[in-house]
Design goal:
Strands 1, 2, 3, 4 and 5 form a five-stranded mixed β-sheet that branches. The protein has a five-stranded antiparallel β-sheet with strand order 8-7-6-10-9. The protein is an alpha+beta fold. The protein contains five helices and ten strands; from the N terminus they run αββββαβαβββαββα. The chain has helices spanning 2-11, 68-78, 86-100, 141-153, 172-193, and strands spanning 16-23, 29-36, 40-47, 59-61, 82-83, 106-107, 123-130, 133-138, 156-160, 166-170. Helix 3 (86-100) crosses helix 5 (172-193). The longest helix is centred in the last third of the chain and has 22 residues, at 172-193.
Length: 205
Amino acid sequence: MEEILFSVKNILKDEEEILSAHVSSNENTSYISIFKKIDLFLTIRISNHKKINSYYSNKSFNPLDNDLLQKIRTYLNDSSWYKFNYKDYFTIKLLGELKKRKKAIYIDNTMNIFYNSSTKLVFYMYAHSGRNKKDMYLLDDSFQSSLRKLYAEGIINNYKISDEEISIHVTKLGNRLVEKFEDKYQQQFENDISRIKFYKVEFPI
């Protein structure tokens, strides 16, 4: 990983910086996120195997490619970079607030639709309606849309709890972006989070 990071750093422009980097648990895949200017970022995936599902939209590169660095530089030059905005920030911070309250968001995997990438991502939560009783409800359209965007960009990822339940969590990239924009968005977040009813979460923006 250190060797890859050093090589990628050497091809970055002055306005670009590595924001986060990590290696998958099997050590076969590296993720490197690059930040530039005020609010733009892009993640590259370097791996010797294909992506597990099609929901993740970041570009993959083969580490054994002789032209690896040249191809990465061309990709960075020619791509439309992701723009981090307040809605992204709010969504990540809201996930943190839910975690504090021991609440989770799940990905629908009915009939293996998530693992087969057979439909768009659908997210849901549980509302407690009585002792030991949980009612499932789908998140509203605005919340669904924001989570799909963050998943595609690698800001959130899935975590398998069981064959029936797949939860989500914020990645290292997501936490780094929140840190970078804390001063800009924290006050607005505090105003908006006061409108959230945590019994049944509805997206306020």
